[in-house]
Every structure is written in C-alpha cells, then in structure tokens.
Amino acid sequence: MRFCPNISTLFNDIPKLTERYIHIVQRKDYRFDAIECQNPYDVSVNNWKEIISNNKSLKWILINSLPLYDQTNMIPSFNDYQQLVLNRTLDYAKALNVKKVHLVMMDITNDSDRQKIIDLVYQAARFFQPHHIICLIEPLSTRLNYYLQSYSIAMDIVKSSKIANLKIMLDSFHLQRLHGNLTERVEEMIPFIGHVQISQTPKRDCPMNEDGEVNHRYFLSKLLAPFYQDFIGLEYNDSSKASFEWLNEFS
C-alpha cells in the first residue's frame, strides 16, 4: 500500500508548508514519494516550484479547491464560481501536476440550496475533465450545515451525474462519525471511490492509536487492499516528532 502525508495537518509544529515539504524529504523512518495538501494557496506557485526544484520532487496526489464558503456568503453562478475558485485551483493543479481535486463547497440553509450546489459540482467536474483531473466530493462531519453530510447522498450524486471524473473521497474519520458500520459502507461505495484518507476517531490523530474507535489494520488490510491501489492520504494531526514506522507494516 502507498501513503502520502497531508502537509496541512501533519507536522503542525512546523509553521510553514514549504518547511514541512522539506521535512518530509529529509525523514529517515519512512520514505515518502508523494504528498497531499489542503491549502497550497498559502504559497505562491513560483515559490512551490523553487522548493521542488531545490529538493527531491515529491508527487502531488491531491489538493483541495479554494473553499467556496471562504469566498462568498451566497451560492454563486457557475461563471462566478469559476472566477472565485476554479481558475486559481486549476492553475495550482496544473503547476503541481495534481490529478485529484477535492471540491470544497459551502453550507446550506435548505434543500433547494443543496441542489444548486450539486449543480455547481457537476459543472466543476466538467470544467476539470479536459485536464484529466478527478473531482472529489466529501461528506464532512465537522461543519454543522455543510451541504454534504451523508455518504449515501454522495453516492447518489456521483451515480446520477454520469460524469466519469466525479468520485467520492472516502475518509475513515468522517465515515465513522457520520455513519459507523464501516465494512458495509465501504463495500457499497467501492465503484465510486476516487481517493482515501485515514485518521483515528474521535481525536483525528494517528490511525494506529489504540484508544480510538476504528481498527485501521482491519480497515486497510481487509477492506481497502483488495480493490484500492492508489495513494492513501494521512490527513491527521501530529507533530514532526511522530513516527511513521507503523507504515512499514503495510508495505
């Protein structure tokens, strides 16, 4: 199995994303070949290129789009959404050669708003399709009114779209908090999963912490291994002092 650290959540004692990138390159306990990042926009494209050229080039697996909820309080038209979010997200995706983008949308107050956002998701997936970028939607358990808080609804959105590059982000933390019953949920989502992230529940810490709710050894070895061959994102909170020797168990 292949893993990529999320530099937005890990190594949180290192203040700058660029310094976290360098830290990953220099680690000795586990050799990472790839990363993912929620917010690469904190660093300019040119600065990223400089950091990458001066260090080992790590593969960028995933970035988040600019969060729509940070850009506006109203559901925009697609043209406005493209100007507010998509163009800049695409610039970073192309510059970093990213092939997966998590579409971070916004909160809602009623179901009609949900459908408007879903329409934006469909249009965004078509926007990225010519660039061979997979668009991911993720149910979130940490935003009270987020438009998507159900993996069942996420499956319906993807199935109804009939858009080949629109997939589900499977995150063990959110899945456990929203639904539990991970085995059945994962098995029914297999055809629709585009990316996987893991962290322990309820503290969003190391997946192998035994005082959490999820047995990630079972989750990884029995549920994911038979069908998912791509990188697994380590999107959890920890410092640079944390060990990654546990990953060797899944090599």
What does this structure look like?
Strand 5, helix 5 and strand 6 form a beta-alpha-beta unit. This protein has a single domain, classed as Divalent-metal-dependent TIM barrel enzymes (TIM Barrel). It is 36% helix and 15% strand. The chain is globular, with a radius of gyration of 18 Å. The chain is of the alpha/beta class. The protein has 8 helices and 8 strands. It has an 8-stranded parallel β-sheet with strand order 1-8-7-6-5-4-3-2. It has helices spanning 17-26, 45-53, 78-95, 111-128, 151-161, 172-178, 182-189, 216-224; strands at residues 2-5, 34-37, 59-64, 100-102, 134-137, 166-171, 193-198, 231-234. The N and C termini lie close together (6 Å).
For this entry, give a set of tags.
251 residues, alpha/beta, TIM Barrel, eight-stranded parallel sheet, 8 strands, 15% strand
What are the SSEs and their pairings?
Elements: E1 2-5, H1 17-26, E2 34-37, H2 45-53, E3 59-64, H3 78-95, E4 100-102, H4 111-128, E5 134-137, H5 151-161, E6 166-171, H6 172-178, H7 182-189, E7 193-198, H8 216-224, E8 231-234
Parallel strand pairs: 1-8, 2-3, 3-4, 4-5, 5-6, 6-7, 7-8
